[in-house]
Design goal:
2 copies of one chain form a homodimer. By secondary structure, chain A is of the alpha/beta class. Chain A is 23% helix and 34% strand. Chain A has a 10-stranded mixed β-sheet. In chain A, strands 8-13-10-11 form a 4-stranded antiparallel β-sheet, with no helix packed on it.
């Protein structure tokens, strides 16, 4: 079973066809998950989430009771905690529902502390093993996560650019067969390499590294006023 | 002298009063800097940048010649390079123009590989010493950077939340006197702590740490459709 989750990030950053994406996923038996305000957003998109997680602090009591009526499995987090809402959600979908993959929406845009929690949470040792099963998607970005080894990075039709970020210390990172190569890069701190591309006529390149966690960010340009 | 720079990020993420901010800054003698498409955006806002930096690859030749006519100091970067456009800009404003502070706009939203370059660039050893002089600002976030020591983090009127991110390994991080405290936190990898707040009646808290680089992210909620 796959899971599709919507977090509380601004609607302006969602892919334009998000309603279709979630409805099709639900028809195919995917677990539909709302995190905090994402529960309400899903309801407004005409979906009945299977699982809801959050402290729901920012919601009106009426909204909160709507969530409890509609969602069969609601789990409450507390603001003073070691685990964030997103982390509780990861634990629930992978450990309790045993999903094989998680597509995460509403994780970007708006407050940058929220986005950075959603991105950097995968560097935590207890969540690192889940990272390769997670895909973080918004209107113009698709992020996959890789653990050490030799990986083939395949092109995605709708995305021209591919950036790489070592989210923590990395050892002997190599990018082979992309437009811009990188050889034997090691670093004690995170670094982002933006705007790489697939070579013309090639639909993949090789990524190898020995230690760390690497995010691969597929992205595309939009009209400059697309977000206004 | 202070510098105000506009990068190529989407206009939808700029603070709403960005034109006023830049015009006032220029009246007060600040250096106005455009990076790549940011040069054109500044022109459209009615400003004459003092410095322009970029590969200008995505621009029409006509747009490029406009930039050369209007901006007295234009510096070209190459796509195959160790320094990004933003890094070249940092070098130019701090080493050539000797500015005391840099206010950076258009660094967020849109392509996440671009944003992460703009954020993580300050973890690079040769740029780390500049970080405390840089303020990264968009519609709902204000990011400051801190190097090790004992710091007083002051509240900012327009922002309810304050998040912290250690952008690299950190040693003995303490948050004292905020709504949520943190004691003796050390980590080999970056981690984001979102949604902290100033205590009611208090307009600051203490941040101490021994090693690393910490980003303090002031943020606020906006109407959920503000970005649509």
């Amino acid at each position: 079973m796959k899971a599709y989750a919507l977090l509380g990030g601004p609607a302006g950053q969602w892919p334009t066809k998000i309603a279709t994406v979630f409805h099709r996923a639900q028809e195919r038996g995917a677990l539909i998950v709302g995190v905090d305000r994402g529960c309400l957003f899903l309801k407004e998109l005409g979906l009945s989430p299977n699982l809801g997680i959050g402290d729901f602090d920012s919601l009106h009591p009426r909204e909160e009771s709507q969530i409890e009526q509609v969602i069969p499995d609601v789990r409450y987090s507390t603001p003073i905690k070691d685990w964030t809402d997103s982390e509780l959600m990861l634990h629930a979908v992978f450990h309790d529902y045993h999903v094989s993959a998680l597509y995460l929406f509403g994780a970007t845009g708006g407050r940058l502390d929220h986005f950075l929690v959603n991105l950097l949470t995968f560097a935590r040792p207890r969540l690192r093993s889940l990272a390769p099963k997670v895909h973080l998607i918004d209107k113009q970005n698709w992020i996959d996560f890789y653990r050490p080894g030799k990986k083939i990075i395949a092109a995605k039709k709708a995305y021209l650019y591919v950036g790489l970020v070592n989210l923590m210390a990395v050892k002997d990172l190599n990018i082979i067969g992309a437009k811009y190569s990188l050889r034997h890069f090691s670093s004690m701190y995170p670094r982002a390499f933006a705007s790489n591309e697939f070579r013309s006529g090639s639909d993949n390149f090789e990524l190898t590294f020995q230690k760390g966690l690497v995010a691969v960010i597929y992205s595309r340009d939009l009209n400059r006023f697309a977000n206004v």
